[in-house]
Amino acid sequence: MLKSGISPAIDWPFRDDEIEKRLREEYRRWQGTRHRMGGNGDSGIDCSGFVKTVYKDVFDLDLPRTTRAQASLGRPIAFKEIRAGDLVFFKPPTYPRHVGIFLSGSEFMHASKDSGVTVSRIDEYYWGKYYWTARRILPANE
Length: 142
Prior knowledge:
This protein has four helices and eight strands; from the N terminus they run αββααβββββαβ.
């Protein structure tokens, strides 16, 4: 049982590179899918729906549907400690909250209002300016 109260159905721990590989494979399936508020499928998906779906498909973990609820899961992670699979949260001016899944380096995948499902860099001015917090849902790979 994870700290979040979610039981993983796959063996842990995975190394960060394995987690990232699985996430990038799933990203390729979703890449370019348009953003649709409240959406949760191939015809359109929003940020929290994307995170929920990816976590279910890749890790067999059921997350809540809303960004607010997702932001209360797991444990907070310092920016410099973010790893593959951690959730990264933002408070942009046009939305109350936004969420994505960290990959590696400075990259995270998310369902962007303008670009649909895409990979962005957390160190870009926009995302850096509106970065809020990160949460670790997956078991630690110490």
